[in-house]
Amino acid sequence: MRLKGNRFVVIGRAGMDLYPDPPGTRTEEATRFVSCLGGSSANIAVAITRLGGSADLVTCVADDAIGRFALNELDRYGIGRAHVRSVGGEARNSLAVVESRVEDHQSVIYRNGAADFEMGDADVAGVDYSAYDALITTGTVFAAEPSRSAAFRAFDLARAKGLPLIFDIDYRPYSWPSAQVAAEVYSRAGALCDVIVGNDVEFGFMAGDYAKGLDKARALVADGARLAVYKMGEKGAITITPEGEVKTGIYPATPLKPTGAGDSFMGGLVAGLAEGLSVRDAVLQGSASAAMVVARVGCAPAMPTRAELSDFRARHVDPDAD
Predict the structure, then answer these.
(1) How far apart are CA 284 and CA 287, in angstroms?
(2) Scanning 23, 62, 151, 244, which has the fewest C-beta atoms within 10 Å of its C-beta?
(3) Considering the entire predicted model, what is its pTM?
(4) Domain count, the chain
(5) What number is the average pLDDT over the span 277-288?
(6) Which residues contact 277 (CB under 8 A, 6 or more apart)?
(7) Which pLDDT tens digit goes with each residue over 112-121?
(8) What is the DSSP letter of 84?
């Protein structure tokens, strides 16, 4: 599968991440923190721009200091925010306190009254989808209204302009009213998309049986999707296309933290598809990006540049699947 170009419209949240400093510090023992842009969709957008693509974000942020922080960070990374709307009242940006440690890692997420859930039909209707080559969204946008209906409306509008739909399952239980609602909505979204990316647990969740996740990924492709990436952690990934399946391994890394891998993987994958790489090479590019990010502090600031990623792959043999 190939994309026509590297211009992406990304739907979903931007927020703030706080990392106890120095790396290895427990949150409860921290006396200082490092602030970074956060939110899965914003992180994916950063990954894309770092690799030479363009990304515009569609979301809502709080009309307060944290919201302005997110806007400033989007500007700093070169992410388009013409479709990022500030909202007042009690809406707040998501906030994550994330440790740079693997052993006994702690991440604390604050999502009460999340500003990004205020995204409505008018926000997505104002986008010129013909200016992009693909739409990317993460599963969190579907967790509450009006964001859920707006995201499905964006799907319709993007599809009408011929854009492929790319879906990162990104299941976060704390955002949903129930597991049943999440499974139903995810299945609906997945059935509409051309590219679906998730881990074995997320596909299993969509299937309603964790033992049937791979079957779910295969079924999505059989029903019309062009690519599904079934990630299995240290065991690598199985990528399913109408032409067959490709198995890939993971690159060696000394992780500093377990977070950020999924967002960086997505960025590397779609950049590769836009570059015209084979499916296998695009997946390996995503895997290399993920290996680099987990070994660095932060998520957005850890995303590799094109030169860094090329150097990493030149120094490592492409991993075989287990």
Answers:
(1) 5
(2) 244
(3) 0.97
(4) 1
(5) 97
(6) 285
(7) 899 999 999 9
(8) E
